[in-house]
Amino acid sequence: MASNKNRKAVPPPTPNFNRHESHCKICAHARREEIEGAFVDWFSVPQIAADFNLGDRSCIYRHANAVDLFSRRDRNLRLPVGRLIERVDEVKPTAGAVVQAITLYQRLSARGGSASRDDLVDLHDLFSKMSPAEFEIYAREGTLPDWFTKLAGKKKGPQGSGGNENA
To answer: What pLDDT does residue 153 have?
Structure first.
């Protein structure tokens, strides 16, 4: 039996856009921009298919691949993370999950990409400034002090600026 080790990795062929467009339900759909927007905004693909009467989700993935919606969606990571943080009061998350979500949200730039290290607030430093009473409330209720969330939302100044330009 031949080994796969000697085979070169061949990238998948790029879709023939003219053929795709002539057969695609989404390209012909009157609400194409809404469908694409929902996909890029990380809405549930099965729900998108149901909302727009597209049958199943496979046509959405084919269309997304043909028109490169995946790269647009990958740059839009702040939206789903923001939704998770926004719904924190509807579920019973652990304190660690809340901190991880806040940290991830901070690391994502407004464009959805990863922010540079200089743009981040040191959460360890902020937690070290919490009083025992604030820690107790945070552990019991998952509520951070107002000063914490205000400081966590600020970014440090540009590298070499000598301080926090936004304070």
So the answer is: 62
- Do 39 and 29 form a contact (C-beta atoms < 8 A)? no
Q: Compute the distance between CA of residue 133 and CA of residue 143 in angstroms, rounded to an integer.
A: 12
Inter-CA distances, 144 with 26, 70, 86, 149, 155, Å: 44, 35, 14, 7, 18
Task: Kindly report whether the global pTM for this prediction surpasses the value 0.90.
Answer: no
pLDDT beyond 50 at 13: yes
Q: Which of 152, 79, 167, 161 is nearest to 120 (CA)?
A: 152
Q: Other C-beta atoms within 10 Å of 36: how many?
A: 20
* 54-64: burial string, b at 16+ Cβ within 10 Å, e else: beeeebbebbb
Alpha-helix residue ranges (DSSP H) falling in 25-94 = 32-40, 45-51, 58-66, 69-74, 78-86
Map tokens 């062929």 to a residue: 13
Query: pLDDT tens digits, residue range 81-118?
Result: 778 778 777 877 777 877 777 777 777 755 455 555 54
Three-state SS for 47?
A: helix
